[in-house]
Amino acid sequence: MTAIPAHSQSARPEKGDLSPPKHVAIIMDGNGRWAKARGLSRTEGHKEGVQAARRCVEAARDLGLTHLTLYSFSTENWRRPAGEIRDLMGLLREFIVGDLPRLKKENCRVRIIGDRENLSLDLRALVNKAEKETRDNTAFLLQIAFNYGGRDEIRRAAKSLVEDVKSGSLQPKDIDEKTIAGYLDTDGVPDPDIVIRTSGEKRVSNFLLWQAAYAEYIFLDVLWPDFSKKEFAEAIEEYYNRERRYGGVGTS
Ligand code: IPE
Ligand code: IPE
Ligand code: MG
After folding, report:
1. pLDDT tens readout for residues 54-110
2. Distance 183 CA to ligand 1 centre (A)
3. Domain that holds residue 228
4. Which of the residues are catalytic?
């Protein structure tokens, strides 16, 4: 991703000495509760959630980010009713078909992280097409975590790493953290600076377990369908009030 240019500093307030965040990852939670509060079906909540995701991609770019990761279906979400799962798959399909032309025009690269094995053939083909057609785009990277679980990602990475050791293309003595990062779905992408979770829940739910080792977590009460540029900008401001020490002693 070296081709992605330095982003603007438009989101940066005067105070603080942190460099502007590049990558924000979001656990988009609360669609069901949003729908329930309005007497609507969970699927209506997810539809509204897709609208919020669209607005969020726009806002991310306006706020000067270059990478956005959206958690939209976890490896644990298979526990949901079959109808809801089908609708969530349908919404990903609709999002790709409907938004790919615009994302292409805006020079955005799309990548889907997660295990594709359990996706239907047509969805897999669509995901592959979206990645292929945007592969060389450099303005922005949108990662959609779909059938994604941090533990499952590490399991798949371990499997291919062991295969490479067995075939002799990788020596155990050469394995460092960078090697492991290179086997993850997010290969080549900078770690998220910020992980936002909406809906008031304060847990990680198996999201980016390796990559978010030093991310700043921001938990918001807003339900995902109500998430707008305002909340996004506030989260970034909150980030500037944090002190990232990375295990050191800090500056104050
Ligand atoms: C987030 O909203 C979307 C997915 C997990 C697919 P939820 O569907 O989890 O909404 P709540 O948590 O039930 O309100
Ligand atoms: C996390 O939300 C997964 C996504 C947002 C895709 P969940 O609603 O599935 O998480 P839990 O069940 O509350 O941990
Ligand atoms: Mg939820």
Report:
1. 999 999 999 999 999 999 999 999 999 999 999 999 999 999 999 999 999 999 999
2. 29
3. 21-151+191-240
4. 29, 77
